[in-house]
User: What shape does this take?
Amino acid sequence: MLTIRLTRKGKKNQPFFRVVVIDKRSSTRGGRAVEDLGYVDPLKKRKSLNADRIKYWLSKGAQASATMHNLLVSEKIIEAEKVHVSKLSKKAKEKMKTTADAKVAAEEAAKAKAEKEAEDKVAAEKAEAEKPAEPVVEVTPEETVPEEPKE
Assistant: This one.
C-alpha cells in the first residue's frame, strides 16, 4: 500500500521535509520513494506541494499520513476535517469527546432557541396584522376635563 508522508532531510537542528509517495512498509528514515511531491521547510515557513500529483495519488488509493492529511487540509488541496495527531491518554480522549458532545448539544440548544424566537416573532406579527384597527376618537374641546389648579 502506498502512503503520502513526510521524510526528514537536512542537517542537525535544521529540519527539512520532502513530501513523497512511498510504500508504507518502508522505513521513514530512508527507502526509495515512488515520487517526490514537494517539500516543507518549517524554519523558513515555506511549502511547495504539487497539488495535481497529490490528488492523482489519492485517487489511486494512496493514504496520507495524519500530519500530511492536516497539511493538505490547511493548504485546501483536499476538503476534510483535520485529524487529531498527538497521542492522547484514554482520559484525555474521553474528556475531549465529552467537551465536543457538550459543544454540539449547546449549538443545537441555541439553534432551537433561535428557531422558537423566530416562530414567536412571526406569530406575534401575524396576530398584530389580524387585530382590527382601533377607531380614532376625536376629542372636542367641550369634552376635555379642565385641570385643577395647583396650590
User: Anything to note?
Assistant: The first strand starts at residue 2 and ends at 9. Residues 86-127 form one domain. Residues 90-130 form the longest helix (41 residues).
